[in-house]
Specification:
Elements lengths: L7 E5 L4 H9 L2 E4 L5 E4 L1 E6 L2 E6 H7 L8 H16 L3 E3 L16 E2 L9 E4 L20
Parallel strand pairs: 3-8
Antiparallel strand pairs: 1-5, 1-6, 2-3, 2-7, 4-5
Length: about 140
């Protein structure tokens, strides 16, 4: 099975939803307990004419970078996919793929758009960014 087969394939409810989903994902993740910092958990990926919601660690795997992608990361990704579907931003191509495992929404920080300017939004992966192989700090540490 190819790695891309493990991603959650989605359809956009409307073509303009790509940017809405991309922006919404910047406001969902893990927050700092002491500062207004939010680390983005998932990204929208457009590959070979299809759209996917992927955890940033899956993108590390896609780039053959070391990572510790675990069931808790899958649960976080699945929960985020289900939320985007509930909010009618996307439809899930195979809804059963995101049913298990999931985690309580309280395990995520979902930042309202109105509070975005008060927070530092930090992606752990930037789609399209190439890292030189000699750079030992290719990506931020996992949190």
């Amino acid at each position: 099975m190819a790695l891309v087969d493990t991603f959650i394939e989605i359809n956009l409810v409307a073509p303009e939803n790509f940017l809405k989903v991309k922006e919404t994902l910047t406001r969902i993740g893990i927050s700092s307990k002491t500062e207004n910092k939010l680390w983005q958990s998932c990204h929208i990926l457009h590959k070979r004419g299809k759209y996917y919601i992927v955890h940033f660690k899956e993108l590390f795997l896609l780039d053959s970078l070391p990572t510790d992608f675990a069931e808790s990361d899958i649960a976080r990704r699945n929960t985020i996919c289900n939320l985007l579907s509930e909010w009618k931003l996307i439809t899930l191509v195979m809804p059963e793929k995101s049913k298990n495992p999931v985690l309580p929404v309280s395990y995520l920080k979902i930042l309202p758009h109105s509070e975005k300017s008060q927070w530092q939004l930090i992606p752990k992966y930037t789609i399209g960014k190439k890292f030189p192989p000699s750079n030992p700090n290719r990506y931020p540490p996992n949190t």
